[in-house]
Amino acid sequence: MARGGPYFSKLLLNAIYFGASKFSPRIDVRSDPDDPRSAGSVFRHRTKDLLMPALERSDITTVQALLILTNSLFAMGQEKSTAWMYAGIAVRMIIDLGMHVEDSSSNKKRGLAHEDIEIRRRVFWAGYVVDKIQALYQGRPISLQAATCQVPLQFLDQYEEEEHWQPVGFSGSVHYPEHPTYSVSTFTSLCRLCLLIEQTLNKIYAVQSLKRGPDGLLGDVEKLHEELGQWYTFLPAHLKFDPSSPNQVVPPPQVLSLL
Question: Residue 40: enclosing H or E segment and its boundaries?
């Protein structure tokens, strides 16, 4: 940020501030001190001002900012149509930047270092996940299809996997055992789940799926049910949670949301 590197932009910074504000107890981030839903409004206004010039060319930081804004707006129940549009623009930029197809020859031609490849790969899969979640929750068609993409679901940097996780605002009087964040394995598993969500939306809920008849639909449902079972079976042990076990610690929300 201080050096103005290629992976920093004011738009991305303010999008992060906006998304983080909804978790902040600080009154000064609210436009209305009595309304928690107004948290981050000043950063939201800044992103609106910064977004228009950023749309003149595709850029990874703009993709990241759009995905963050999509999630934040939708999670807050605000501007759902805007969230959908932002996700769509992010997908178009991903394709425009060629991030949906990865191969060693194109990476060499672009002069991409390992760090660049890792960033592009993570941003692609983030866009893929957001696209599926938006389509699922808003009842819209999928924009980014796996059949038109070729990006490995394997991440080189595992550093944050074992970072310590602590609940935000957790009462100091209640002890929560130390727990790794498991961010990389959680994200990887979420991506695999979204691949199945894509199949579900395409085969069960697509308009043309009605033409296949009840027998064809039933066969698809049974196959998808089996594949979901396999997805859960092959989850890493640290991502599984049995609520009936009295000795198992409740995992972080990002892990729990998978289940």
Answer: none
Q: What string of DSSP letters covers 140-153?
A: ---SS-GGG-B--S
* SS3 at position 165: strand
pLDDT tens for residues 221-253? 999 999 999 999 999 999 998 888 888 888 888
- Which amino acid does the sequence have at 163? E
Compute, in degrees rounded to 10, the torsion defined by CA atoms 187, 189, 192, 197: -90
In angstroms, the CA 64 to CA 70 distance is: 10
179 DSSP assignment: E
DSSP letter, residue 39: B
Q: What is the pLDDT of residues 54-72, one digit of tens each?
A: 999 999 999 999 999 999 9
How many other CB atoms are there within 10 angstroms of residue 200's CB atom? 18
Which pair of structure tokens corresponds to residue 171? 């009462």
Whole-angstrom Cα distance, residue 55 to residue 88? 13
Q: Degrees (nearest 5) of the Cα angle 115, 117, 125?
A: 115
Type of residue at 186:
T
Distance CA 143, CA 151 (A): 16
pTM confidence score = 0.92
- pLDDT for 91: 98
Burial status of residue 195 (CB atoms within 10 A of its CB: 0-12, 13-18, 19 or more): middle
Residues 207 and 216: their CA atoms lie apart, in Å, by 14
- Phi then psi for residue 165, to 5 deg, are -115, 135
